[in-house]
Structures are given as structure tokens and as C-alpha cells.
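Work Package 3 (structural annotation) set out to generate three-dimensional models for the target panel prioritized at the project kickoff. During this period the team completed the workflow that converts sequence records into C-alpha cells, so that structures can be stored uniformly alongside our sequence database. As a representative example, we reproduce one entry of 140 residues exactly as it appears in the project archive.
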Amino acid sequence: MALINCSECDKEISDKSAYCINCGCPLFPHSNLYDNQTYVPVSNTPIVYKHIPGKGFGVASMVLGIIGLFFSLIWFLISISTGISDFIIMIVLFLFPVLACIFSYIAICKGYSSGIRRVGQLLGVLSAIILIVGAFVISI
């Protein structure tokens, strides 16, 4: 294995390499290995993150759905076991599923239709159902 100098950055590299490990320049650009390919330097290549509209609302919907489901189940179990239900706490807990569904709808309007948004909407609806069923069971 011999060391040769890169034609672009003048660093020493192996003659067995297909490209320079420092700058990404192809060592043998006329070989069949590089047909129909464009030269893109390895270093100084910016990483581009794709902005997805509505993703934040989808994630917020999922988080609110999880929080709403968790606290709704705790409220439901405590209310059933003690027979006492605080209506104010139920109304406050009802904000989580409502906000989860609203944020899910906003994410849909912005064009984000991923599973995260669907999970948030499903958990929001499920926690709302638990709160409504709990309120009816306690009132009977």
C-alpha cells in the first residue's frame, strides 16, 4: 500500500482508496466507479434538516394525550374506589384530551399526518371517554 497525495487537498492517502478521506475528492475520476455520479465533498457539506409543517402540533397532541390518559385513569380509579368525585378536577383533566384533539386537528390542517398525531388524537379521545364514563358511574 503506497501513500499518494490528494489532488484537491494535498493530504496523504492510500492509493487503494476510491476517494480522499479528508475532502471526498475521487482519486480516479475517470474510472467506471464514478460514471453518472457527481462529486460532492465529504467535508464542508451542510446537513440540511427538512422542516415538516405541523410536526410540533402532532408531538404536542401525543404528549397531551399521554398526560390526559394517565391522569384520567388515576382520577377514574380513585373516584371509583372512594365513591367521591371532584367535578372541578374532572373539568381540569378534561382540558388535556380537548387540547390533544385540537392540536391534532391543527397538525392535520398544516399537512402533518403521521402516526404521532394519530396516537395523540386517539389517546385524547380515549381519556375523554374515560372521564365521561367516570362521571356517569360516580353520579349513579
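The chain has a mean pLDDT of 79.
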